[in-house]
Write a structure and sequence with these properties.
This protein has one helix spanning 58-66, and strands at residues 7-11, 18-23, 31-35, 39-47, 76-83, 89-94, 100-105, 110-114, 119-124, 135-141, 147-152, 157-161, 171-173, 180-186, 189-194, 198-203, 208-213, 218-223, 229-234, 238-243, 249-253, 267-270, 275-278, 301-307, 313-319, 331-332, 338-339, 345-350, 358-363, 368-372. By secondary structure, it is mostly beta strands. The chain is globular, with a radius of gyration of 20 Å. Helices cover 2% and strands 44% of the residues. A hairpin with a 5-residue loop joins strand 24 and strand 25 (313-319). Belongs to the WD repeat MORG1 family.
Length: 378
């Protein structure tokens, strides 16, 4: 099964970079996108028409006549916008029944939303027992999604009871020595990644914490379906597949051309756990060799995909800034010189937790690009 490297839809509407993406629970019909503009948008990636009129300008039509090899990518449908956050949205998680979702961000609060009514059901934050800094990650947990687990810049993990009227967390985990950047929940286990270079696994049944030392600051954690391994992204331009029982590294994924040393860039497992997929701090602005007819769109993002078992690089995919005609304009830096805007790919999600037939990515462009296998009908 080849890696799906062709865009099948663009999701528009954000007025700033997108920091968080999530598919609805199975069958994963919808996509949620959390933005720096403080809003969350719900999309159906299926286009409203075969070619969305607003995605095509007269100039792009002329361009496409000249370049028949550049197909027009349709737009998905914006269904609903959710607004309550006072700062950027940094994380999203969807309940298993698709009736609710939770979001967290720069306002130190976790919001629980009613999907259909587009209203907040609960807000966990704003008290002395709440997080004291931005919340980087949130995940549902517990029986029937009765709990929410959040990880924060304040170096703590907090567990909230969705069914209780109390605004106090039911548990506070403070073993981390620096910001918590990622959380994952599997049954009675909570797994967190921290800038202190550790991945911690908490078994809430027995109150035990197991710490695995990775080394560099951890930026993302993705558990395998069987829970026996964890994919860990770090700020040393490497991704590691860690054995959760022994704490050993099963495989390392890296490339001299791929960089993740400064920013929080998400990595994930996809294609039924056949691929390791990650964004890139760098962008596809490198010039092509001389005497070639290939053109380069400045500021394009990049995706990388490795084979999970062999570690072989299977795909390097260029991510367009957005629909034809929406390429970024140059901006003037503090030094007065023009600079290209870069589409850093920092967040992603794969339908049905990596086992579906499509995935989506976004970053600084604010446009969500959806990729799918050729059998996908949208």
């Amino acid at each position: 099964m080849a890696f799906p490297d062709k865009p099948i839809a663009h999701l528009l509407g954000s007025n700033g970079p997108v920091h968080a993406l999530a598919y609805s629970a199975s069958p994963g019909t919808y996509i949620l996108a959390g933005s720096s503009d403080r809003s969350i948008r719900l999309y159906n990636p299926s286009p409203s028409t075969s070619i969305h009129p607003s995605s095509v300008s007269s100039s792009s039509l002329t361009t496409n006549k000249k370049r028949s090899t550049s197909p027009i990518i349709p737009e998905g449908r914006l269904i609903q916008t959710y607004a309550a956050h006072g700062y950027e949205v940094l994380s999203l998680t969807v309940s298993s029944d698709n009736a609710s979702f939770a979001s967290s961000g720069g306002d130190r609060s976790v919001f629980l939303w009613d999907v259909a009514r587009a209203q907040t059901l609960r807000r966990f934050g704003g008290t002395a027992q709440s997080h004291s800094a931005r919340i980087n990650a949130v995940a549902f947990g517990g029986e029937s999604d009765s709990l929410l687990v959040s990880g924060s810049l304040d170096a703590s993990v907090r567990v909230w009871d969705v069914r209780s009227n109390s605004l106090k967390p039911v548990q506070v985990l403070t073993e981390a020595r620096d910001a918590v950047t990622a959380v994952a929940v599997r049954g009675p286990e909570i797994v967190s990644g921290s800038v202190d270079g550790r991945v911690r696994s908490y078994d809430v049944r027995v109150g035990r914490c197991t710490t695995d030392v990775v080394g560099p600051a951890v930026t993302s954690v993705c558990l395998t379906r069987d829970g026996r391994a964890a994919l860990v992204g770090g700020l040393d331009s490497k991704i590691r597949l860690m054995d959760r029982e022994s704490g050993g590294c099963l495989k390392t994924y890296a490339d001299a051309r791929w960089r993740n040393a400064d920013l929080r860039v998400q990595s994930m497992l996809g294609g039924k756990e056949q691929y390791v997929v990650v964004g890139d701090e760098m962008t596809a602005t490198q010039p092509h060799p001389p005497n070639t007819t290939t053109t380069t769109t400045s500021g394009e993002g990049r995706l990388w995909a490795w084979d999970v078992l062999t570690g072989e690089l299977k795909a390097q995919v260029r991510v367009p800034w957005g629909p034809a005609g929406s390429e970024p304009k140059k901006m003037v830096g503090r030094d007065g010189k023009e600079k290209e805007r870069s589409n850093v790919i920092s967040c992603m999600a794969w339908r049905e937790n990596g086992f579906g037939d499509q995935f989506c990515v976004s970053g600084t462009s604010g446009v969500v690009t959806v990729y799918g296998y050729h059998s996908t009908i949208i």
